[in-house]
Amino acid sequence: MNSFVNKLFCNKGDDESSGDEVFDADAVNLTHVGDAVHKVLGREHNHYHEKMWNVTSGRVVGSVHQTPLNVWGSSKDPEEGNDDWFPEKMGEMISRTEKWCDIMSLGPPDGKFLSEFKAAIEKVAESSKTAKETIIVRLLVGNIVGMPVNCSAVLKALTKDLPQDANMQVWVGAWRKGFSWNHAKLIAVDGVYLHTGGHNLWDQHYLKNNPVHDLSVELEGSVARDGHRFANLQWEFIKQKQDTCIGGCVDMMPDSMPTVLRTRVTVSEWPEGVACTFPPMFTKKKVAKTANYSRMNSNVEKEGLVDSGVPMITIGRLGTMVYKYRSADDAIIAMINSSQKIIRLVLQDIGPVTVPGTKKALPGLKWPKAYLAAIGEAIYQRGVDIEMVVSSPNSIPGGLKGTEANYGNGWACSDVAAEIIKSIKKNHADVDDGRLRAMVTDNLRICFCRHDKNSKYKDGKTIGLHSKHFIVDDVSTYIGSQNLYMCDLAEWGVIIDSEAEVKKIKEDYFDPMWEDSYTGEDVDVETVMDELDIDRDGEQTWLDYVRQNDAQHMMAHGGNEFLSVDEAELFSAEVSTRNVMKGEIVEDVPAAVAA
Question: Tell me, what DSSP letter sits at residue 506?
Answer without folding.
Answer: I
